[in-house]
Amino acid sequence: MNRLVAKRPEHEAIYVQVKELILFGEVVPGQPLTIHGLADMIGAGITPVREAMRRLTAEGALAARENRRVEVPLMTSDRLAQIDLVRLTVEPKLAFLAANQAASAVIPDLERLDARVDQAIHTGDIRGYLVANFRFHFTLYDAADAPILRRIAESLWLQAGPSLRVVCGRYGTSNLKDLHQQAIAALREGAPQDVADAIEGDIRQGLDFVRQTFDE
């Protein structure tokens, strides 16, 4: 368990661990999970794992099945279209608000995280890419100081993350693209709409990458 997670209460730390297994695609869509199996996987107690699974089911990251099993839902074209619609509404707005909140203070963190994204793409490190890409976006979104919109955005990332991991595993990282540098440049110039436009374009590229699954 990393240092930041260890500072949280146990039930919250376990929730974060389970959430990140889903967010970064270490549990594949359609894979059945049980409370005991997941507890063994992360070395945690039954009670906090049960609570984490309950919360993540309520958030749409897991779906309940028979015999007390849950799974990461399989992605469908209709589901992806709905995720697409809401992400393209919420996340550019978060980026715009962040730019308006004098978010230039986070530029060094964004540059560091973007360098990690580029390195992960270069080396084919899929998990490293997913982690750094998530941290980049949510470092920016945190600067917006809009917790309701942020929670919506994270819920949607939880639902899309496992499928992105599957697609990256199939096609590798060499074709991954982003508009992070454009977003950073616009942030530095104090141009909120340009930041929002860069983030919107970045999201579209990622969703189009996932959409390849349904175009074959």
TrEMBL record:
It comes from Ruegeria spongiae. PROSITE patterns: HTH_GNTR. The keyword Transcription applies. This is GntR family transcriptional regulator. InterPro entries: GntR_C (IPR011711), TF_FadR/GntR_C (IPR008920), Tscrpt_reg_HTH_GntR (IPR000524), WH-like_DNA-bd_sf (IPR036388), WH_DNA-bd_sf (IPR036390). The lineage of its organism: Bacteria, Pseudomonadati, Pseudomonadota, Alphaproteobacteria, Rhodobacterales. Residues 8-75 form the HTH gntR-type domain. Keywords: DNA-binding, Transcription, Transcription regulation. Coiled coil: none annotated.
